[in-house]
Amino acid sequence: MSNGPKLLLQFIGRYPPTGSKINYYGFKAEYKFIKNFGISTGRQVDDNCTFMYNSTDRKSGWFGSPNFPGYYPQNIICHYYFYGEPEERVFIRFTFFDVEGIGTCEYLTASDYVEFSNFMSTDRKYGKYCGKRDKFEIQSDGRFFRVSFYSNDRFDKTGFRALYDFQGKSSQVENTSMQSYVSSSNIVLNSFFSHNVAIIFAINFFGKCHI
User: Fold this and answer.
1) Strands 50-54 and 88-99: what pairing?
2) CATH code given to domain 43-185
3) Which of 38, 94, 109, 117 is the most buried (most CB within 10 A)?
4) Which of 133, 67, 140 has the alpha carbon at shortest distance from 94?
């Protein structure tokens, strides 16, 4: 997936060694132009990488990083806003998490990271999350919760996938209720985003043939 409205795909062919008995057939690719950053859930806000999840629309579901389960694009900021009804809290369970980064995920480590907040601004209650993590859960203090994803121009990874659930304050977190939500995702292979348009390539390599 590209990180803007343009993408250059260059193919360079070279002569095989003299006497080689191998023929190479190259590749075949499919492309499409998208505006949703590869995120198919929630309600997108003004063609930005900002998505809203309202309890009045749906009590549970899933969300993920751009282009998941392919590699996420570089230099991107995505926000996921969760709005519950009065007396509700937001429960989030990450089923997959692999965001490029090390240590405390601070700027000096050149890490991509995920940030959580009970507010639109920074919340000191939560640190930054990066690296490869096992499944984990997090919950809001009130009816609103923000999840933000930041990537830089260094490296990239697969990102994350999480389940969300709006529950009343008196409710207990039940893993079974979140695990019961099942959603299928289209896998994008060899993905290479911006402004408003991203480009996705799915490439099938035909490989080589021995004579």
Assistant:
1) unpaired
2) 2.60.120.290
3) 38
4) 133
Residue pair 146/82 in contact (Cβ under 8 Å)? The answer is yes
Q: Which amino acid is at 166?
A: F
Name residue 81's amino acid.
Y
Residue 86 has what pLDDT? 94
* Domain parsing of the chain, residue ranges: 43-185
Q: Mapping DSSP to helix (H, G, I), strand (E, B) and coil, where does residue 177 land?
A: helix
How far is residue 180's CA from residue 174's CA, in Å, rounded to a whole number? 10
- Please give the average per-residue pLDDT across 196-200, as a whole number: 56
Closest CA to 64 of 1, 136, 114, 2: 114
Q: What pLDDT does 11 receive?
A: 87
Contact present, 98 and 158 (Cβ < 8 Å): yes
